[in-house]
Amino acid sequence: MSVSIRFATRDWDYLTPLILGDVKSDRLDVSVDRVGTLIPDLATDAAYDAAEVSFSRYVSAMAEGAGGIVGVPCFIMRGFRHRCIITTEASPLERLDQLAGKRIGVTGWRDSGNTWTRAALRREGVGVEDACWFAGRLTAEHPIVDRLDGFGRPGRIEAAPGERPMMELLAEGGLDAVFTPFMPTAFFAPGSGFRQLVRDFRTAERLYFDDVGYVPGMHLVAVKSEIASRHPWLPDELSRLVDESQRLWTAKRRKYAETSPWIIEELLQAAHDLPPAWNDSGIEPNRRMIEDFAAELHAQGILPRPISVEELFPFVNSHPSSA
After folding, report:
1. Which terminus of the chain, N or C, has fewer Cβ atoms within 10 Å?
2. What are 128-157's pLDDT values in tens digits?
3. Where in the sequence is the domain holding 186, given as residue range(s)?
4. Is there a single domain that holds both residue 67 and residue 174?
């Protein structure tokens, strides 16, 4: 008899084969709920057995000794970050190192994506202490919430002035750049007045990959600890289903190529620029990325102490044959 679980994730296209039942398991029946935002706390959520969780918050929780969930080295959300820095069309800024001394907006200080973007800046010599930071909502449609998360420092890391939308501040010159994982709707309009700071961000990201060897992971899969303890094979099987769904989705997109008039060009270029295993799950394929991320959290003052891969994924290491 198979085990049934409810799995909360964002609406990633590549999970469509899993959602429709094209990807199946004899042991695990997965009901996928697509959510607009990550659930606050999987460990105490009565509705879900597994979920997409923030990499940053997971690492912080493990460093603090929190229990309740088991992280799986299956990075359900990955992405390069050079494209996530936006400025105005009129701005003279075009390189990461030019952000030294500038006013930078972020959508959340501890967010995994913003941590990776600051890591890219640190590689170019711009650390946290080398700029002025403001955390706030991207547009007026976004809610006013605490985006400093306890990491605010007067004169260095503050809330956006008057909690005004950062795109408005950027347009008016109150900010020099904004870090955001998702582009605002207006960004796609002709004549929006905004652009990516790094104009040829694809080349910059390809060079970044050539150097580090990975596409940064922002979110990962997690399972409630008590479920993983009862079914030690389950986290690995869920990871396998997610990976298989992406493989099938990619194969179908390459065949139909209907998402946009030029999607075939993107698929071809990605296949040429990245190795086939760029999105593989598991400890060893992701060890350097995990280590780099933990080191960044510590260097940026978010993580109070360094933490090892083995500490972050103790269940995986204690159940190497769980599949």
Report:
1. N
2. 999 999 999 999 999 999 999 999 999 999
3. 82-212
4. no
